Amino acid sequence: MVARFLPALLDGMLVTLELVAVALVVGLILAIPLGIARASRHWYVRALPYTYVFFFRGTPLLLQLFLVYYGISQFEAVRESMFWHYLREPYWCALITMTLHTAAYIAEILRGAIQSVPGGEVEAARALGMSRRQALQYIILPRAVRIGLPAYGNEVILMLKASAVVYTITVMDIMGVVKGINSQTYQFELFYLVAGVIYLVITIAFTQLFKLVERWLKIEASQKR
C-alpha cells in the first residue's frame, strides 16, 4: 500500500525540504540586520525591529499564512501589480510567510547571542584599534554564531514541523500529499504514521548535521588558541 504512493510521498518531502531550506536561508539574511538592530543601545534603532519581531513571534504561523494567502488578494493594487503572478500561488505565499516568520525568531536568537559575547573581547578589539564596524564583523558576529548555533538548530527543527500547516492552502508538501492519499484510501492511521516517520527521519538528519557543525566549530576555535 505504502509503496504504491511512495513517489508522491517523496515529491511531498522534497517540497517540504525546499520550503524549509529557502525560508531558513533567506530568513537568516533578513535576520542579521534585524538582530544587530535589536541589540543596539539606542531605542529608536530597536523600535522597528522590535515591532516586527513582536508581531511574528506573537501570532500563530497559520494566522500569518492566511493573512498572506487570503488577505493580500483583497487589495486591488496587489492584484494589478507585477507581483500578483507570485502572490496568487500557494507555494510562494507559503514561502514568503515562512521566511518572514523564521526571520523574527532567528533575529531574536542573534540578538541574544550578540549580547552574550563577553564584554572583554569587545573591549580588547577596540583597544587594538578596531572600529565599531570592524569589531562587529571580526569579533562579535563570529563569536555570536558559535553561541547561537544550538538555538538556530532548534529553530530549523521547529520550522520543519511548523511547515506542516502549509497544506491548508493546498501546497502539496508531506501533509498535503498525505491528505490526498487519505481521501483515496481512507487509511488515515497508516499514512499519518508514515508522515510522522518521514518528519522524524528528516529531524534526525538535521540534528546530526548541526552536531557535526558544532563539533567542527569547536575544533576550529581550539586550533586558533
UniProtKB/TrEMBL annotation:
Q: Which InterPro entries match?
A: AA_ABC_transptr_permease_3TM, ArtM/GltK/GlnP/TcyL/YhdX-like, MetI-like, MetI-like_sf
For the ABC transmembrane type-1 domain, which residue ranges apply?
13-210
The protein's name is Arginine ABC transporter permease protein ArtM
From which organism does this entry originate?
A: Halopseudomonas laoshanensis
The record's listing under PROSITE patterns reads: ABC_TM1 (PS50928)
CC per GO annotation: ATP-binding cassette (ABC) transporter complex
> Which segments cross the bilayer?
12-37, 49-72, 92-114, 158-178, 190-210
Q: Does the keyword Membrane apply?
A: yes
> Which region is the signal sequence?
none
Membrane disposition = Multi-pass membrane protein
Q: Which family does it belong to?
A: Belongs to the binding-protein-dependent transport system permease family. HisMQ subfamily.
